């Protein structure tokens, strides 16, 4: 059997062509825009109807502090050959910044984009080094991405998970008169789509978002010839916001995205804000663009998806890659590891420390407990603990980190007090580390499960006029459009009332605390939690206050006010103030950023018999202002004297 052809690189005027006999990639010179990808008999997989600068590219959204936003499609100004032989070619398309570019849309960064092709490999690698030099202007970076726009006449089937794949609408279907925009431009009802089977459905790119930890491979399938275009991300270390951060994947276009930085499902907390001459450098990627075809005619085209998943496993096992020529990408010998065992200590539940099973544990830049979810400038490395609580986090870039964790079913965030220093080829053993979650006293009642999600609560069926059929009967039923509108339909006469001991949070606690539409506007809503106490709550000489723990899974321009037994208390007994910008209600997420509030409930506020906690979401100028609860718990005081018992 003949060996695969070697890799060739040719400069043809304004273009550079990479070819290994399987895949041919054409880029602009020196811009580095991918204008063509030839594979499996298709002369070009990219959208040939688009301008050459609008097919395959990197781009950013950024702004001066307090200024309006800019979109920068990154055009290189310098082309260099970094590696060139028959086994491998690595090319650089770079651009620097200088003061003459002030006042333009060019972001104040040096950006070096790399593309790498190997002999015999059905695809190519893509990565970039972003660098900020000292004394360059202050700015905020909201988004950085790599974009691939494929031929709409060829790629109609999208896949991102075993249970999240389908025939997608055409881009024309989203435009009038075929499509009708709904409450925001991204959501469109397909009134007269080209494929009549899609009539009446809703299309929204946010319905195909995914958590970082699950965003391994996604892409598109062409039916004739049977061809797959897949983006494989073998590591999350360069993504922002940690393993639970959600982001876009593939959507109508057909478009395939690699999101490296974004404020989606987080808001401004995840913008990269650079001030006062800060120095910064980060490597994004490599990600692998994998192209495949079926072995013979008549093969089930979903073979391409299964094969792409197998290739994703190969790429993950190869991480960190050994081939990037940039010294800024740390190879395995430049990395280290950390290990230990995580235990949970909650004396009100167990007399002994308990192994933290399936906990998320990771290294991120030093900060406060939970700061990793708002961290965007550095690298993060995460693992899951075993059933016995043991963990190893390997292939960590050398540097100083905080060790963070959270445990499904346990409230709050863990952070190791000491900074962890990782050295090349070194291993740090932290031994047994103990997480003592927030706790003042025994649980009187609780609502939900502390898992940073509202998925366990009541998610309604969608309005039949606004259905995405993919999510009918799907575990991710929260991804349907317009669920926020169902609240007023389900509670037409008054707001939600939850009775401890009688109500079931899976049926009686709406997944999102939203506003209520009234005529041309909206009004705030107040939910009630009713519970009874058998004995007097205010005990003379007793211990401290009761504690109401409120964990939020999401917040968007919301203010949660808490009142106990006095719905008119002014000021309220507690307020969060205005918080949140994750927009998860509108974007079909079941969580955004996590918030934990610990509210003192004074004994004199409580009474013998029935008590009511009033929860008011006080901000109401939009249907998308609101909260998602993760978990609520009322604890008795830590007093040694007997505590009142709730009557169930």
UniProtKB/TrEMBL annotation:
<keyword id="KW-0964">Secreted</keyword>
<dbReference type="InterPro" id="IPR051850">
    <property type="entry name" value="Polysacch_Lyase_4"/>
</dbReference>
<feature type="domain" description="Rhamnogalacturonan lyase">
    <location>
        <begin position="443"/>
        <end position="634"/>
    </location>
</feature>
<dbReference type="InterPro" id="IPR014718">
    <property type="entry name" value="GH-type_carb-bd"/>
</dbReference>
<keyword id="KW-0456">Lyase</keyword>
<dbReference type="GO" id="GO:0030246">
    <property type="term" value="F:carbohydrate binding"/>
</dbReference>
<dbReference type="InterPro" id="IPR010325">
    <property type="entry name" value="Rhamnogal_lyase"/>
</dbReference>
<keyword id="KW-0732">Signal</keyword>
<dbReference type="InterPro" id="IPR011013">
    <property type="entry name" value="Gal_mutarotase_sf_dom"/>
</dbReference>
<protein>
    <recommendedName>
        <fullName>rhamnogalacturonan endolyase</fullName>
        <ecNumber>4.2.2.23</ecNumber>
    </recommendedName>
</protein>
<dbReference type="GO" id="GO:0005975">
    <property type="term" value="P:carbohydrate metabolic process"/>
</dbReference>
<dbReference type="GO" id="GO:0102210">
    <property type="term" value="F:rhamnogalacturonan endolyase activity"/>
</dbReference>
<dbReference type="InterPro" id="IPR029413">
    <property type="entry name" value="RG-lyase_II"/>
</dbReference>
<comment type="similarity">
    <text>Belongs to the polysaccharide lyase 4 family.</text>
</comment>
<dbReference type="GO" id="GO:0005576">
    <property type="term" value="C:extracellular region"/>
</dbReference>
<dbReference type="Pfam" id="PF14686">
    <property type="entry name" value="fn3_3"/>
</dbReference>
<dbReference type="InterPro" id="IPR029411">
    <property type="entry name" value="RG-lyase_III"/>
</dbReference>
<dbReference type="Pfam" id="PF06045">
    <property type="entry name" value="Rhamnogal_lyase"/>
</dbReference>
<dbReference type="InterPro" id="IPR008979">
    <property type="entry name" value="Galactose-bd-like_sf"/>
</dbReference>
<dbReference type="InterPro" id="IPR013784">
    <property type="entry name" value="Carb-bd-like_fold"/>
</dbReference>
<dbReference type="Pfam" id="PF14683">
    <property type="entry name" value="CBM-like"/>
</dbReference>
<feature type="domain" description="Rhamnogalacturonan lyase">
    <location>
        <begin position="357"/>
        <end position="427"/>
    </location>
</feature>
């Amino acid at each position: 059997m003949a060996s695969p052809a070697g890799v060739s690189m040719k400069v043809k005027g304004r273009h550079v062509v990479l070819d290994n006999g399987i895949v041919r990639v054409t880029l602009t010179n020196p811009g580095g825009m991918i204008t063509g990808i030839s594979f499996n008999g298709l002369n070009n997989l990219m959208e040939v109807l688009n301008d050459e600068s609008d097919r395959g590219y990197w781009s950013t959204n950024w702004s001066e502090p307090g200024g309006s936003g800019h979109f920068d499609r990154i055009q290189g100004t310098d082309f260099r050959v970094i590696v060139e032989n028959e086994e491998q070619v690595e090319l650089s398309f770079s651009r620097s910044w200088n003061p003459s570019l002030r006042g333009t849309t060019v972001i104040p960064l040096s950006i070096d984009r790399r593309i790498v092709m190997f002999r015999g490999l059905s695809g190519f690698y893509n990565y970039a080094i972003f660098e900020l030099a000292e004394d360059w202007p202050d700015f905020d970076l909201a988004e950085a991405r790599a974009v691939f726009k494929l031929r709409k006449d060829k790629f109609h089937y999208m896949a991102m998970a075993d249970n999240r794949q389908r025939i997608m609408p055409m881009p024309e279907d989203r435009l009038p008169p075929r499509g009708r925009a709904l409450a925001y431009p991204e959501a469109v009802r397909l009134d007269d789509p080209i494929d009549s089977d899609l009539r009446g459905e809703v299309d929204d790119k946010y319905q195909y978002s995914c958590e970082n930890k699950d965003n391994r491979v996604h892409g598109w399938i062409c039916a004739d010839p049977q061809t797959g275009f897949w983006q494989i991300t073998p590591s999350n270390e360069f993504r922002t916001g940690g393993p639970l951060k959600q982001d876009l994947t593939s959507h109508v276009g057909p478009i395939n995205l690699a999101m490296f930085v974004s404020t989606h499902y987080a808001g401004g907390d995840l913008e990269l804000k650079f001030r006062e001459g800060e120095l910064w450098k980060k490597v994004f990627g490599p990600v692998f663009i994998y192209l495949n075809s079926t072995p013979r005619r008549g093969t089930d085209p979903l073979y391409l998806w299964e094969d792409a998943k197998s290739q994703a496993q190969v790429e993950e096992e190869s991480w960190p890659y050994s081939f990037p020529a940039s010294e800024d990408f740390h190879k395995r010998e430049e990395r280290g590891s950390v290990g230990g065992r995580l235990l949970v200590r909650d004396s009100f539940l167990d007399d002994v420390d308990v192994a933290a099973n399936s906990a998320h544990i990771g290294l991120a830049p030093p900060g406060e407990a939970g700061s990793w979810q708002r961290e965007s400038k550095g690298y993060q490395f995460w693992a899951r603990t075993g059933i016995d609580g043991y963990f190893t986090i390997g292939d960590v870039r050398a540097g100083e980190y905080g060790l963070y964790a959270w445990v499904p079913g346990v409230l709050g965030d863990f952070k190791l007090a000491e900074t962890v220093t990782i050295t090349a080829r070194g291993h740090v053993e932290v031994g047994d580390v103990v997480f003592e979650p927030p706790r003042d006293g025994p649980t009187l009642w609780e609502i939900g499960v502390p898992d940073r999600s509202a998925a366990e609560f009541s998610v309604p069926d969608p309005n039949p006029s606004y259905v995405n059929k993919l999510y009918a009967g799907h575990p991710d039923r929260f991804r349907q459009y317009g669920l926020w509108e169902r609240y007023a339909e389900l509670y037409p006469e008054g707001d939600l009332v939850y009775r401890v001991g009688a109500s079931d949070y899976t049926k009686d606690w709406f997944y999102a605390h939203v506003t209520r539409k009234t005529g041309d506007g909206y009004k705030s809503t107040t939910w009630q939690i009713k519970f009874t106490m058998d004995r007097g709550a205010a005990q003379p000489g007793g211990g401290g206050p009761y504690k109401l723990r409120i964990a939020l899974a999401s917040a968007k321009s919301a203010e949660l006010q808490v009142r106990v037994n006095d719905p008119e208390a002014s000021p309220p007994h507690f307020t969060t103030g205005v918080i949140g910008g994750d927009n998860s209600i509108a974007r079909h997420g079941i969580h955004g950023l996590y918030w934990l509030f610990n509210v003192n409930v004074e004994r004199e506020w409580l009474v013998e018999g029935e008590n009511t906690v009033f929860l008011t979401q006080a901000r109401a100028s939009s249907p998308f202002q609101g909260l998602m609860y993760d978990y609520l718990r009322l604890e008795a005081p830590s007093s040694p004297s007997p505590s009142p018992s709730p009557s169930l």
